[in-house]
Amino acid sequence: LQECILSGIMSVNGKKVLHMDRNSYYGGESASITPLEDLYKRFNLPGTPPESMGRGRDWNVDLIPKFLMANGQLVKMLLYTEVTRYLDFKVIEGSFVYKGGKIYKVPSTEAEALASSLMGLFEKRRFRKFLVYVANFDENDSRTLEGVDPKKTTMRDVYKKFDLGQDVIDFTGHALALYRTDDYLDQPCQETINRIKLYSESLARYGKSPYLYPLYGLGELPQGFARLSAIYGGTYMLNKPIEEIVIENGKVVGVKSEGEVARCKQLICDPSYVSDRVTKVGQVIRVICILSHPIKNTNDANSCQIIIPQNQVNRKSGTGCCPGALGVVTRGNGHLLPAPGDLWGLLGGDRDSSAGAPALPPLQIFISRTYDATTHFETTCDDIKDIYKRMMGSEFDFEEMKRKKNDIYGEEEQQ
């Protein structure tokens, strides 16, 4: 996905782009597998899908399920480039949190906080005051800070200020701020408060939840940006084997494929193409579970996210999400999550999580990061902005992504 978005942006900016993929489908590790028969083949499942599962073509199963925050960076990228014209989205019906063996709706508004059974009456009042404080929080206006220093006061101290209990701290940190661990508690509060504001602002856009999801799976996203690149003169090749990255005098000069060399001045790739230049920083275990029924206590939601705070399963890390009507995915950093109640059946599957070592400027190879265990695309967008800055020598600017209205490609597309 990072490579597809960057190829789209570079094409809009007038760069000459050749995009090659060794796979027969768009998106690489973040692809959506369809039909269902291909999913069976990918995971070496015996036989074929039973008839009760319907037509194989009706299935799009994401290998790395994530959501889009409705007010987040990826949605801005889609809007600015107008890639939204190629995609249809749906709003995820709800976000839930796991506590004491049960699932509860995540309270993210004053009304929901007052109605939630997650908290007692007095806790609700304190949490409501906290949400109002966060909504009004402006680091440039001391009147809204109430004595809190955004760059020095820890989040633990902010929770103490509002006298919030451990259960409220758990779902605020993991289900609203969407942290994977509790390390954030002893860090300056500014980042956490901004995360909660993003959640609330995203929720305000559509009401049911702060999350959006492409109607036909996440594989639609890389296809959309690849099409954007093509509209502005970029060339995309699927099923294109990569034999060698050609380096001369300490600088990339091309890519060899099927005996030919495509010359280039800069190269963007994911870690699998340059395994000798990246460092493994962890491992994410992902599990895809296909259910024949809605999940209990979710009001029979067709789509939802379920967050499992680490304290609830006695783990150092871990979150979980249900990205679709019949899919449940649990994630953890290096730990397989225990099965809470009768929710999770377990199917195997894991992927390495590698971090691209920043390329030395003379080499001009820019390596994206593999996908972490977060349930949304904000860190993916941070990676895109980082690569852009290292390639272009300037800060990423959303305005630079806007379609150039006078471009011949843009005009032809609009006609």
UniProtKB/TrEMBL annotation:
Keywords: Acetylation, Cytoplasm, Golgi apparatus, GTPase activation, Membrane, Phosphoprotein. Gene3D superfamilies: FAD/NAD(P)-binding domain, Guanine Nucleotide Dissociation Inhibitor, domain 1, Guanine Nucleotide Dissociation Inhibitor, domain 2. InterPro entries: FAD/NAD-bd_sf, GDP_dissociation_inhibitor, RabGDI. It is a peripheral membrane protein. It comes from the Eukaryota. One of its GO terms (molecular function) is Rab GDP-dissociation inhibitor activity. Pfam families: GDI. It is found in: Cytoplasm; Golgi apparatus, trans-Golgi network; Membrane. The keyword tRNA-binding does not apply. One of its GO terms (cellular component) is membrane. GO terms for biological process: protein transport; small GTPase-mediated signal transduction; vesicle-mediated transport. Interacts with RHOH. Interacts with the GDP-bound inactive forms of RAB3A, RAB3B, RAB3C, RAB5A, RAB5B, RAB5C, RAB8A, RAB8B, RAB10, RAB12, RAB35, and RAB43; binds RAB3D to a lesser extent. Interacts with DZIP1; this interaction negatively regulates the interaction of GDI2 with GDP-bound RAB8A. Belongs to the Rab GDI family. GDP-dissociation inhibitor preventing the GDP to GTP exchange of most Rab proteins. By keeping these small GTPases in their inactive GDP-bound form regulates intracellular membrane trafficking. Negatively regulates protein transport to the cilium and ciliogenesis through the inhibition of RAB8A. PANTHER family: RAB GDP DISSOCIATION INHIBITOR BETA, RAB GDP-DISSOCIATION INHIBITOR. This is Rab GDP dissociation inhibitor. The lineage of its organism: Eukaryota, Metazoa, Chordata, Craniata, Vertebrata. The gene is Gdi2.
